[in-house]
Amino acid sequence: MDAQTTGADGDRLDAAALRGLFLFESLTDQQLARIAELGRVRRWTTGQTVYAEGEPAECFFVLLDGAITLSRRVHGTEVEVTRSEHRGAYAGATQAYAGDRMQQVYPNTMRAVRDVALLALPAREFAAAIRQWFPMAMHLLDGLFVAMRTTQTVVGERERLTALGALTAGLTHELNNPAAAAVRATAVLRERIAGMRHKLAMVADGRLNGPQLRRLVGLQETAAQRATKAPTLSPLQISDAEDELADWLDAHDVPDGWELAATLVAGGFDAAGLDEVAGAVAAADLSAAVRWMAYTVETELLLGEIDDAVGRISGLVGAAKQYSQLDRAPHQTVDVHELLDATLAMFNGKLAPGVAVRREYDRELPPVPAYPAELNQVWTNLIDNALAAMGDRGVLTVRTARSDDCLAVEIVDTGPGIAPEVRPRIFEPFFTTKPIGEGTGLGLDISYRIIVKKHGGDIRVESVPGSTSFQVRLPLAGG
Length: 479
Fold this sequence. Notes:
alpha+beta; 479 residues; single chain; 6-stranded antiparallel β-sheet; Heat Shock Protein 90; 3 domains; Jelly Rolls; rod-shaped; 5-stranded mixed β-sheet
């Protein structure tokens, strides 16, 4: 066709020309007149972009002549989804009927692959006319739209709750270990302090004079400092040291020498240290003095255990707070490494004994503007899928690097890989390869929307047997 049959740029089409388009063939004369009043012929030359994906959807387009292509950006790459030269084919503001209930943007990019003539209908006016003419169809479409949106919301929330439940169980397990260690150490510490009070009877009954007491207290302080800095010994070195102290204690008639030897060696004591204790008190008081030193050493060791346990609890709570982003602004400038570490900490309880975690971070990378709570959900989905793929054995690698003007995060597992027939579908909503009862999906649709739609980034996958890599790219200047 040519301009004589389709009209020049800016022209209206008459009702007869409109009725020749399959989309309008069943309309009444009055309805056709309304379409003719609204529509204008618009022309584009080969290679020109009619509209771009993500722009405000202002027009509904019907192809009159020529050929067009529709494309979408998929993981950072422009992918052609359809090509048509069929007269009457339509695109553009196809969801204008939904009004303000959804964001009205173009879902794809239209280009002219051959000079085209399109009928352009203003989206708002065209949608109003359709709602007026076909109320029953609009009710059905409304129901479909609301049902799909509700389903997606419910399933998305369920998936987030499932992931949160699994992480909470793991966090509870992780917190239980140091908490139990602190409780056990506290109970033993109470007993040892009671023993030390009992040994102070030596002082109360006057068996130690002033100089002896001062010297013994000095040795006690030295023993406490030695216990906090005791070197780490190999099992063979520990055995030899315990044998040496047990022999010394037996030779000096100190009861239960073997039991005391283990505690004293753990605190860094050697035979020379015991000689100093023996030189500070009378032979009759040596056994009590040695036990006092053992209590001192064990007390310091228990305090160290409690400090370590409380530190681990504090670290886990800090990681949980970093992960959940409680009391923090939804959008902020963040160090991605802190987010990754917090997410990995949530998975400590879920890691199988045969799974190793490698962190390969580029610490020179700058912070990025982002929604950290939502990024943590992306890391959760990707890491959870990686661990599920590897099972009981494998290596999980979390890597960061700079890629042009983006910060790249790569999560790699050594699982069997993604099957070729599955790979094109992994970013589809609700798609899953997991058995029934094991989660609600892979979470990749949510991850895609968070990275691409909300952060203006990119997420892609490369997979072969033995290596599956998900790469997330975040703009350093923000989305």
